[in-house]
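REQUEST ID: PR-0412
SUBMITTED BY: lab tech R.K.
PRIORITY: routine
TASK: structure prediction, single protein chain
INPUT:
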Amino acid sequence: MSRLDRLIKELCPDGVEYRKIKEIYTRLKGTPITAGKMKEIENPDGDVRIFAGGKTVITAFEEDIPQVNITRVPAVLVQSRGVIDAIFYEQPFTFKNEMWAYTNENRTSVKYLYYVLKNNIQQLRDAASGMGSLPQISLKVTEEFVIPLPPLAVQCEIVRILDNFTELTAELTAELTAELTARKKQYEYYKSHLLTFDDSVPRMSLGDVCIVQSGGTPSKAKHEYWDNGTIKWLGSTVCQNQKTVAEVTNYISKVGLKNSSAKLMNKETTLIALVGATIGKVAFLPFEATVNQNIAGIYPIDTSKINPSYVFYACGMLYADFIGLSQGKLAMANLSFVRGLKIPVPPIQEQERIVAILDRFDTLCNDISAGLPAEIQARQKQYEYYRDKLLSFKEAANEQL
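STATUS: complete
OUTPUT:
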């Protein structure tokens, strides 16, 4: 039997009382302050944190805050507009007066309230639905919210367990993120090293050694070009400097392919985005697909002389050329520009050796890149499961007067 089980058995074997938040906790008010004033007084060295709507948070000096109302005790802030959430904070802070906070003379009880609200946050968010494009909850939602109130010793043990779980999850996330960063740095180092050659290796224009072509978009007005489509069609957002395509943007029909400028690109074609935020970024087709007009597809004219995967890695080194073209402004590269870009072309055996090394690095990075969100999500679900278990109590029967 765990310590928590023993405490519950000893202190509340017949259940716990349920009370409204307003009956147990003291509500705190914020500071009337505009977004403009917050920008004016923001200072990274400030001694007071100010929470605003959504995820806006700044620090400022107390003397610069007009009509200031500082909270100097541990409290749970209820974010009531835009982002509906709860925040536990125990350093000097204030908040826009459209929000509110709760405190109690006992810090543990305040932290306990935070975990209870986080455990029921979806219920609070549901209460905000149907209140316009910007979600908002009323004060009554939390004031009247009923929570289980076990003895303080039980609250303390629950807080201890959840604090430890939170810390362990944060440590795991930090470790995995650091490992991913280290692998990516190592990968970039070896890619640069392997793709840097002396003058003995010829540099050839992409247009001389590869087929370079753009795609097209069938008319959206022609439903038969899209309805029940089976041919993959990709937009430039798939170009994310990864040797894969994470998802298919859409599908077109055979009729759409035949009656538009869209072209079916070979499997193992390198894609380069020609415009927008992804300009110069690459992807590598693991299947046949069509692409829109904002992508250049690049495939070797002779695969016995140019390895398709080598083209992908070599094109990944051309990003600076595209950024130089845009010079910080919105620009579009055309096919002539792409065809004129030069890549080093060592013997096919050397290309294959380079590809084998970089593919291993790519796999190592992608394994942890894919595994990181999955592991974090699994930990989060595990955490939420145990939090719900810890905060679920049998309600004590009301005594009859």
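NOTES: The chain has a mean pLDDT of 89.
REVIEWED BY: pending
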